[in-house]
Amino acid sequence: MHKANRIINGTFGRVWVDGELWAEVDSFEAKVTINWEEVNFANDGATYQKATGWKSDGKMKIKKIYSRVQRKMAENVRKGIYPRLEIVGKVEDPDTRVSERVALHDVTIGEFMLLKFETKTLGSEEIPFSFSDYEMVDTIAP
């Protein structure tokens, strides 16, 4: 039997950047992609795969309430300093009574918006990032 109330609701997600809660985050995504290289052998028609490492990327979309990213990045980048951040993302649904949390280490922001606006449109910005390490702090067990 399916139990719809066990599906976690993203409304209760939160993000901390360098220990500071960013409550204005609308969406958050962090993923790992495994790098595979094709391997072929003589007298074998199959193509095999050999893992050669992994890469990461993510993005978050935030409501434009503060100049958080600009404060962390803009002046530093002009000086040749490229900040590295720590991000923790968590989703915890009171109806399911479970949570999932991940810590991202050595986070780098590849691009950031200096200024963006559009008439009759609520301000938001999307922040793409990469990371070189991660830790699954909490997972949802079956």
CATH topology: Pnp Oxidase, Chain A
CATH architecture: Roll
The CATH C-level name is Mainly Beta
Order of helices and strands: EEEEHEEEE
Which stretches are poorly predicted, pLDDT < 50 over at least 5 residues? none
Largest sheet: 8 strands, antiparallel
Determine the fraction of residues in helical runs and give it as a percent range: under 10%
Strand share of the residues? over 45%
Structural category: mainly beta
Number of domains: 1
> Quick one: how many beta strands?
8
Radius of gyration from the alpha-carbon trace, in angstroms: 19 Å
**Averaged pLDDT, please?**
94
Number of helices: 1
Q: What is the terminal-to-terminal distance? A: 14 Å
> What coarse outline follows from CA principal-axis ratios?
globular
Protein name: Phage tail tube protein
InterPro entries: DUF2001, XkdM-like_sf
Organism: Paenibacillus gansuensis
Pfam families: DUF2001
Account of the protein in words:
It holds the Pfam family DUF2001. This is Phage tail tube protein. This protein is mainly beta and 142 residues long. It has a single domain (4-138), classed as Pnp Oxidase, Chain A (Roll). The chain has one helix and eight strands; from the N terminus they run ββββαββββ. The chain has one helix at 68-78, and strands at residues 13-17, 20-21, 25-40, 47-63, 85-93, 98-109, 124-130, 133-138. Strands 1, 2, 3, 4, 5, 6, 7 and 8 form an eight-stranded antiparallel sheet that branches. The protein is globular.
